[in-house]
Design goal:
The complex is a heterodimer of chains A (287) and B (244). In chain A, 33% of the residues lie in helices and 28% in strands. With 287 residues, chain A is α/β, with parallel strands linked by helices. Chain A folds into two domains: 212 residues, P-loop containing nucleotide triphosphate hydrolases (Rossmann fold); 67 residues, no CATH class. In chain A, α4 packs across α5. Chain A is elongated, with a radius of gyration of 23 Å. Chain A starts with a strand and ends with a helix. Chain B is mainly α. Chain B has one domain. Chain B contains ten helices and no strands. Chain B is globular. The chains are: A alpha/beta (287), B mainly alpha (244). At the A-B interface, α2 and α3 of A face α1 and α4 of B. Bound molecules: adenosine-5'-triphosphate and magnesium ion (MG). The site of adenosine-5'-triphosphate has 12 residues of chain A, from β2 and α1.
């Protein structure tokens, strides 16, 4: 099948900084890929190579088989940049009409108004829009050319929680209907909510890559946490400041069975699955 | 493609027209200059040439100085970057900017003509007026191109001071302030190669019905091509330097 994004060995340098350092990336239609990594990891730079805004120093990237930045590639995608700003004299309705015209389409304004909660904003000039309001317009614009691929750089930064949830459910629907999504985020829960796969990069390099399902399967680990009355057995870790002891285990049942068998006096037992964040930290450590 | 061009035109025109604080003084300024200087400097038969000179000055001031150079200011905005991610040929956006700039240029020229009538008492007849407006429309293309060239070759901060530095000498060398016959000989030798002289000659020919001076058309075409080349080079350099 033709990949929405097919990138091999991407490199991008800025003077002495290698912002993207040999990254491979693949994204199929009907799939959402989350790009994670600390500030300055190279996420936005990687997206600028995918959108064709910057030429690569090495490597190739194609969008549905077309070179990134080509007209055919731009036709297939909608983009929300990390920092969006629009002329203050223009209204969202006018911007949507403009973007749709560039795609050679009629604007589907009513659908976008409903999807991105633009009812009160649509005919206001954008001077004075709040950060979250600008963000919602920028997101709506990414979807106004009926793209087969959406490239979204920190789409929900600055959005209130209702808008975040609306965005997540909209993205899931879009993916379910065959759209491909590449998004960056600093929110683990957002990646968990919308993505099938994630790629983690650090200092321009890919340090982790896989489907969320795989990661959870290989890491079916629970965290056991409890308070133990002295004397505690020496196989338990030392207590934290609150007097609780925490223990990660693939078999939490066995931990509890052992506690009971050894007659350890404990209370306030808590067992919870490890969060994606902790799974990633562990996997990265192993990698 | 037509859809795209229209969308660019509508967008540029909206952004411009919704800033009356920008366009009102912009189109009034050349007429004011004419009223203070041009109308006083020359009367009688010379009056119509002064009017034509100030019409060209309006073209230069609006096309070169205001529009062209402003390219330097907004080439680095997130909005422009987002526009680059949309499908469609990039040059259509440039074409739209030039057309909108020409609209404002012609409005400024119209103001100069009105000032000629009511302040200078200079009333060109119908064909003269039509030819002068056509000449101004024609020379606004190289004026805007030269401004865009300067705006894209210079850094965003340098563009305005640099164009200040070029603007008045160019107007003088081109014989827009003092008629070419009054220029010193050495300056005159230089003058015939300046774009401003060529623009002036076109406008003067328009008002006195002379044949279109061919050599000056070639000079203007040369400056236009040079500007397009500079724009092309500067754009690719930006794409490398700024966009990486
Ligand atoms: N135009 C540029 N010129 C010089 N260095 C740059 C440029 N753009 C990015 N960099 C550098 O490249 C590295 C990657 O930046 P990038 O913006 O891709 O990070 P990011 O992962 O998107 O970070 P964040 O989470 O903060 O958005 C950083 O070290 C940054 O300073
Ligand atoms: Mg970023």
């Amino acid at each position: 099948m033709l990949q929405a994004i097919e990138a091999k060995g991407l490199v991008k340098r800025f003077g002495g900084v290698t912002a993207v350092d040999g990254v491979d990336l693949q994204l199929a239609p009907g799939e959402a890929l989350g790009l994670l990594g600390p500030n300055g990891a190279g996420k936005s730079t990687l997206l600028s190579l995918v959108t064709g805004l910057r030429p690569t120093d090495a490597g190739t990237v194609t969008i549905f088989g077309h070179p990134a930045g080509s007209d055919a590639a731009r036709r297939a995608m909608g983009v929300t940049p990390q920092s969006a700003a629009f002329p203050p004299q223009i209204t969202p309705r006018e911007l949507i009409a403009y973007a749709a015209a560039r795609h050679g389409m009629r604007p589907d304004t009513d659908r976008l108004i409903a999807a991105f909660g633009l009812q009160r904003l649509i005919d206001r000039r954008m001077a004075g829009f709040s950060g979250g309001e600008v963000r919602r317009v920028a997101l709506a614009l990414a979807f106004c050319g009926a793209p087969k691929l959406a490239v979204l750089d920190e789409p929900t930064t600055g959005l209130d929680s209702a808008s975040q949830e609306a965005f997540q459910s909209l993205t899931r629907d879009y993916v379910a209907s065959g759209g491909a999504v590449l998004l960056t985020s600093h929110h683990w829960d957002e990646i968990e909510a919308v993505c099938d796969r994630l790629t983690m990069i650090d200092r321009g390099q890919r340090v982790l890559d896989g489907t969320l399902a795989e990661m959870r399967a290989t890491m079916r680990i629970n965290q056991v946490s409890l308070v133990v009355d002295d004397p505690a057995p020496d196989w338990l870790p030392a207590p934290d400041a609150d007097g609780r002891r925490h223990l990660d285990s693939a078999d939490s049942d066995a931990v509890v069975t052992r506690l009971v068998r050894e007659g350890v006096a404990f209370h306030d037992l808590l067992i919870r699955p490890l969060a994606l964040k902790d799974i990633l930290a562990t996997l990265r450590h192993e990698a | 493609m037509l859809k795209h061009l229209i969308a660019e035109l509508v967008l540029s025109a909206r952004v411009l027209l919704r800033q009356p604080g920008f366009w009102v003084p912009t189109i009034l300024f050349p007429a004011m200059l004419y009223s203070f200087f041009g109308a006083q400097m020359a009367d009688g038969p010379a009056g119509i040439y002064a009017l034509a000179s100030f019409a060209v000055y309006a073209v230069l001031g609006v096309g070169f100085y205001q529009f062209g150079v402003s390219v330097a200011q907004d080439r680095e905005t997130p909005f422009v970057l987002w526009q680059h991610t949309l499908p469609g040929a990039l040059w259509l956006g440039w074409a739209a900017r030039i057309v909108v700039a020409m609209g404002v240029v012609l409005a400024a020229v119209a103001m100069v003509l009105l000032a000629g009538r009511f302040v200078g008492g200079i009333v060109p007849d119908g064909p003269e007026t039509a030819r002068l407006i056509a000449a101004c429309a024609l020379v606004s293309v190289p004026a805007v191109l030269m401004g865009i060239a300067l705006g894209s070759a210079a850094s965003a901060r340098a563009a305005v001071p640099l164009s200040n530095l070029l603007f008045l000498p160019l107007a003088y060398l081109g014989g827009l302030w003092v008629p070419p016959v009054a220029l010193p000989e050495s300056v005159e030798a230089l003058s015939v190669w300046t774009p401003t002289r060529a623009m002036g000659e076109l406008a003067w020919a328009a008002v006195d019905g002379r044949a279109l001076p061919g050599r000056y058309l070639v000079v203007l075409a040369g400056w236009s091509l040079l500007s397009v080349a500079v724009i092309g080079l500067a754009q690719s350099r930006h794409r490398r330097a700024m966009f990486g």
